[in-house]
C-alpha cells in the first residue's frame, strides 16, 4: 500500500498533504518555483516522502490561470463559418465602462483578424445542413495558418452545438497539420456563438503550454514516483485525467479558488452541514461560495480577463477586501477600505517592510486581534507601533481616535465581506440563519466570528489543516466530468424521448474517461439537470432533471419563486441539458485526532471590542484545547498557520477531527 | 448636510445602497421577458429619497439614469405623497411625467419606515411593444403621440393586498405579446419588492433618521466633487452644434445647438438656436436634454463621481419651449429618446473640444441603429425582433476607437445570431466588420459592421429608427469623418436604399443588409505612425 498526495501550487508556496496508508495526514509547504513549476511539485513530493511512495498525485495548478492573466497564450488561428469570422471581435457590442472614455471599451480580440479564416458551410438551429462544408477550401486555410506559425487552432461554426458534423470533418482534416485543436462543439455544445467561440479560442491558446507542463510533470513523476497516477483539479472542484486536461486545459483556469472550495465542500459533507458558506479571506481578496447539501455551487459562465468563458466553475464571488486592503480618505473625505492592497510587498505597515498606509491587518493588530509576540509565515514579526502610527494618521484626518479608527476600518471591511456573503446566499433566496461559515485563508478566522454574528449565522468552522487547505481540497476531490448539450423544447408540448436520448449520449461521454481508468460504473453518481426559462426569457435557471414535464415545471417554478419572489402561468421551455458524473466518496476518512491538552490559556493581551471596550484577551494554543471544555470568548486561539478570534459572547471547542467550532447565540 | 454622520456609518450605508440598486438590476434583467431586457439589458434601477432625489443607481444606461432623476419628482406632482401606501407599486410611461418615450415603462415603489415615507425604489424597463400603429411601437411616420402606443398615466398595479388584476388586464389588452408583457410587469414588481425589503433591513439597523442623513451626505459629497471638477475648467463660453438626418416625416436635417458657459463651479447649457419641434418622432423631453447634459459632463470631467441628485446641482439647463428638446406634449417622441439625446452629447462634445482636447472622443455611432422586424408566427401571434446596431467608436487623443461598440447614452447589447435563428423567422447571412468605414487620423476611428437578415416568413414588417445615415460621424482636431450608416434591401441589381426612419413590408426571401457607421478620426492623418498603418493593412481594417 502507498500514500496519496494532494499538491496545490500557489503564488508563493506549493502546499502538499499526504495521506499515509494508516489514514494519517502529513502536510508541508515548499517554496513555489515560478520558472519551472514542476520542479516545486517534485521538491514537495520529496518532502512528504516519509509518508511513503505515492500511488496517486492530485494536483491543482495555476499554470493556465497565469498564462491567461499574463496573456502568454499561444498564437491561435480560428476557423469560422463564412461571413462570421469577426464575431470574435464584434462580441456583444456593449462597452465595459459607461462613463470613462479614457479606457478601452472592450478587450483586444483574442485572435488577430488575419488569423481568423472562413470556410463555406452552414448549419441551421435545428442541426439541418443548409450548405455542405466546402472541404476543398481547407488547403488554403492550412497554408495561411502555417505561414503565420500558428501553433493551435480553434474551430467554431454557427450552430455547431446542434450538429457537429462539419466541425468534426474540419478537425479530421486539420489534425495532420496542427498538434493542438480546440473544437467548439466539444468544448461547449451550447448556443450563443460569441461566448462559445471565446471559450474555444481561449482553450486553444492555453493548450500548448498546458501540454508541455503535463509532459514535464508526467515524465518527472515517472522517475520519482513510478506508477503514480496523476489527476488534475478543474474549476468545478473535481479531478480529471491528464488526457482530459490536455484536451480542455481551460477547465483548470479557476482551479485556485476551486481547491479551497472543494475542501470546504468535503468538510460540509463530513460534518453533515446542509448549508455552508466557504469564506476564504486572503491578503488582497476574499472569496466566498455557497455549498448546498455538500456540493459547491457552480456557474456555467464567467469572465476571465474580460473574455467570456463557458465552462463550469465554482461560483466564487470575489471582492477586493483582505488583510492587506488599504484604508484611506478619498477626495470627498469619505472613508474607503480597499480594493487597493498592500499585498505581500510592502505588506501592511506592521510588517515593517516599508508599508506606511494603514491596512485591515494593522487595524486588527491595534485592536489586539492578532498576537504581536508571534512570528508569521516563518519570518514576519508584527510591529504594533508601526500599525498604530499608520492607523492614527488616518484617524486624525477623519477626527477619530486610533481605536475608533481601527474599529471603523474593520467594520467597513466586514460590511464589504458581508455583502459578498449575502450575494451568494440571501440574494439567491437562502436564509443565512440556516448556514455555517467555513473560514480559512490568512485572515478568515479573525473576521469570521464578527461576520457570523452580523449575518445571523450560528456556527463558524475553522478547519484543521487550514494552512494547507487547498492541497487538502485536491486530495479529497473526486474525479468528476461534465457535459452540456443545447436542446430546445417547450414543456407544454413535451416528448421525453429525445431528451432521454441526448442525456444518454452525455452520460456515456462523461463515463468514458472514468471507465478508462478502471472505475466501476456503480461507483459513479450521475446527476442530470436542465436549464429552463419562461418562453421569452433569456436567463435560464438550472434545475435537477425530472422526466415528467409537470414535475419539471414545478421544480422550475419553485426555483423562480425562490430567486425572484414570483412565478406565473406562462409557458416554460428547456434550452440546455447537463450531466455531471462524479465518483462517490470512497468513505476513507482521516482518523480522528481529538484535542489532547489541558485547555489552559497560554497568556493574555489587551483588546478592544465595540460592545465591551477594552478587555483582557486570553491566548490559547489550538493543539492544547481540551475536548470537553469550550473556550469562552473573548479568546484568541493560535496554531502554526492561523489565528482564530472568538468574540465576546461566543464559545469555541475543537471537534473530534481537529476543527474549531465557534457557536454564537442568535 | 443636516448633521455630521459618522464616516464609518456613511461608508457602510453607501455600499449597502449601491448593493440594493445593483440587486434590483440583476433581478429585472434575469426575470424579465422582453428580448431587449433579456439579451440586451435595456433597463435601469435606482433609489431616491422621499422627495424623489436620486441616491444610488444599479447597472444602468445613461439615458435612463438622467431621466429617473426626474421621474419620482414629477410623479409626486401628480400623486401626492399622502396617497401612497406601504406595498404600492405604481407604473407609468408618460413622457411629460419625468419620462422619455412610451416603451420605457417605470415602476415606482414608496418605502416606509415606521409609517414615514423615507425613500423610493424605481426601475425602468424597455417593453418590446407598447401598442400603437406598428409592432414594436416605433412609428416613423407618427405625427402625434397618440399613434405611438398606450400612454400610462401613474396607475397602481400592486398594493399590499396583491396585484390589481383589472388594472393589469386593461394595460395588457392594449399591447402585442401579452404573456411577455405580463412577465415584464411582474419582473419590475419583483425588483422594486426586493429593494423595499433590503431598505427595511437597513432602516431597522440604522434608523430612518440616520438613513435620511446619509442620503443628504451622499448628495453633498457628489455635489462638492462635481463643483471641484467644473472649477478646474477655465471660465468662458463655447458653442457647438450637430445635425439630425431628418425627422421621418420631412426630409431635411435638424440642428441641435448648445452654448456652454462655465463660470466658477457652475455650468450652464443653453439650447437656444436648436430646431423647432419636429412633425416626426425625433422630438424629446426636457428630461432627456438634462440626461444628455449630465452624461456629457460626467464623461468629460467627472467619470469617478457617484451620479446622484447632488452631482447635478451645479449644472443648469435652459431649453426654449417649442423646440426639438422641449416640445408640446402631443408631439411624437419615440426616436428622440436615443437619437436626439445622442445629438445633444455630440453638440456638447464639439463645443468643449477646444477646452478639453485630451478628453473628447470624435463622433461615433450616436444612434441606437434600431431595426424592428415584426412577423406573424404560424399561431397568429406577433414575433417582434428588435435589433440595435452600434458602430465604430470615435478616436481620442490617446487611442484608436474600438470597433462595433455602443457609445455614450446607450449600451444595449446585440442579440446572438444563434438566438435570432432559433426564435425568429430570419437567417443571418453575414455579421462582419466593415473595413474602410472609419475616419482617418493620428488615431483612427473604430470600424462599423455589416449584418444581413434573410426573411424566412411570408410577410414581415420592417421599421427603421436610426440616424447618422446622412450626416456622418465627425472627425476632430484634423481627423476625418467616418462613413455613415447604409441600409440596403436586396443588394444587387435590384437594390433598394432604405431610409433611416421608414417602414415597409418584406416578403419571403428578401435580404436586408445594414452597414453601420465607423468612428471619426482624431488628429492630423499625417501623424499616424507607419506601424499603425501597416497593422491596418495587414488586418484589412482599411
List its salient traits.
heterodimer, A: 666 residues, alpha+beta, Dna Topoisomerase Vi A Subunit, Chain: A, domain 2, 3 domains, nine-stranded mixed sheet, six-stranded mixed sheet, 28% strand, globular, B: 542 residues, 2 domains, seven-stranded antiparallel sheet, five-stranded antiparallel sheet, 11 helices
Task: Give an overview of the whole structure.
The complex is a heterodimer of chains A (666) and B (542). In chain A, 30% of the residues lie in helices and 28% in strands. Chain A contains 16 helices and 37 strands. The mean pLDDT of chain A is 92. By secondary structure, chain B is of the alpha+beta class. Chain B has two domains: 7-224, no CATH class; 361-542, no CATH class. Chain B has eleven helices and 20 strands. In chain B, helix 1 packs antiparallel against helix 5 and helix 1 packs across helix 6. Chains A and B meet through helix 3, strand 22, helix 12 and helix 16 of A and helix 1, helix 2, helix 5, helix 6 and helix 7 of B.
Gross morphology of chain B is: globular
Percent strand of chain B equals: 15-25%
Oligomer: heterodimer
* Chain pair with largest interface: A-B, 68 and 84 residues
Q: What's the domain count of chain B?
A: 2
If you compute it from the alpha carbons, what radius of gyration of chain A comes out, rounded to the nearest whole angstrom? 26 Å
The total strand number of chain A stands at 37
Which range best describes the helical content of chain B: under 10%, 10-25%, 25-40%, 40-55%, 55-70% or over 70%?
25-40%
Number of domains of chain A: 3
Helical segment count of chain B: 11
Distance between the termini of chain B: 55 Å
Major β-sheet annotation of chain B: 7 strands, antiparallel
What spatial form of chain A do the alpha-carbon principal axes imply?
Answer: globular
Q: What is the tally of beta strands of chain B?
A: 20
